[in-house]
From TrEMBL:
A Pfam family that the UniProt record links to this protein: Ubie_methyltran
Family: Belongs to the class I-like SAM-binding methyltransferase superfamily. MenG/UbiE family.
Functional note: Methyltransferase required for the conversion of demethylmenaquinol (DMKH2) to menaquinol (MKH2).
One Gene Ontology term from the biological process aspect of the record: methylation
Name under which the protein is recorded: Demethylmenaquinone methyltransferase
Gene Ontology molecular-function annotations: demethylmenaquinone methyltransferase activity
Keyword set, alphabetical order: Menaquinone biosynthesis, Methyltransferase, S-adenosyl-L-methionine, Transferase
Reactions catalysed, as given in the entry: a 2-demethylmenaquinol + S-adenosyl-L-methionine = a menaquinol + S-adenosyl-L-homocysteine + H(+)
Species of provenance: Persicobacter diffluens
């Protein structure tokens, strides 16, 4: 059974995820930074530090949302970042942010689906995703299409939530994710399900070695997992 945001609806996971992010787009940035106590900003910086070593000129940021990872990726000095997302609402907020920062010539935001990217094969020097892959309807299909658009030797950098395994972080994290986060998320976002879906989708996600095995299976090489902040989140890297 797939974990979906709105269990009483008939739509598939992708349509529900899109609707959910359209619903919460205006509150997404605020909730992100509040609920992660600002650590999400550090996680993106860590990932871009890894990316920078490879000096990518053209970067694709998938599930770009409101553009925070795309903006952070500019620290790797690329010529251009293209962000794609299935949620128009999230992209709208992202476009406003990019305009306000005067970054329109360096970041382009487009509507697009990771499971059927509208780019030719071997096109990007790097593909990056932060907190997106957990939401894919078909994880392997999405990861395989990202591999298709990467140049041979190109780099993949993914950040995704993972499950801490060590006492007492596991217990603290579970209590926070099950009780605090859904309650705060519900009040601020006014969406009844979005912040219940978040811990459920993290729980269902094949993290750590399970995820690197999937990356190997769909065609990536040199796959690696770097746990961050007691294992609450992980950076995955790979090469095509
Ligand atoms: C949690 S947000 C992450 C946004 C941003 N990367 C960040 O770090 O804040 C997840 C995003 O994934 C997008 N998404 C989910 N499935 C997708 C897919 N198949 N293709 C493209 N975007 C997708 C959602 O619309 C949403 O904007």
């Amino acid at each position: 059974m797939k974990v979906v945001p709105y269990k009483d609806q008939q739509e598939g996971k992708k349509a529900q995820v899109r609707d959910m992010f359209n619903n919460i787009s205006k509150k997404y940035d605020l909730l992100n930074h509040v609920l992660s106590l600002g650590v999400d900003i550090y996680w993106r910086k860590r990932a871009v530090k890894i990316l920078k070593k490879y000096q990518p000129e053209l970067i694709l940021d998938i599930a770009t949302g409101t553009g925070d990872f795309a903006i952070e990726a500019l620290a790797a000095n690329p010529k251009k970042v293209i962000g794609v997302d299935i949620s128009e609402g999230m992209l709208e907020i992202g476009k406003e942010k990019i305009k306000a920062k005067g970054l329109e010539d360096r970041i382009e935001m487009r509507l697009g689906d990771s499971e059927g990217l509208l780019f030719e094969d071997n096109y990007f020097d790097a593909v990056i995703v932060s907190f997106g892959v957990r939401n894919y309807e078909n994880l392997e299909k999405g990861l395989a299409d990202m591999c298709r658009v990467l140049k041979p030797g190109g780099r993949l950098v993914i950040i995704e939530f993972s499950k801490p395994k060590i006492f007492p972080f596991k217990q603290i994290y579970n209590a926070y994710f099950r009780f605090v986060l859904p309650a705060v998320g519900r009040v601020i976002s006014k969406d009844q399900s979005a912040y219940t879906y978040l811990p459920e989708s993290v729980n269902a996600f094949p993290d750590g070695e399970k995820f690197t095995k999937i990356l190997d299976k769909v065609g990536y090489k040199e796959t690696e997992c770097i746990p961050l902040t007691f294992g609450i989140s992980s950076i995955y890297t790979a090469t095509k």
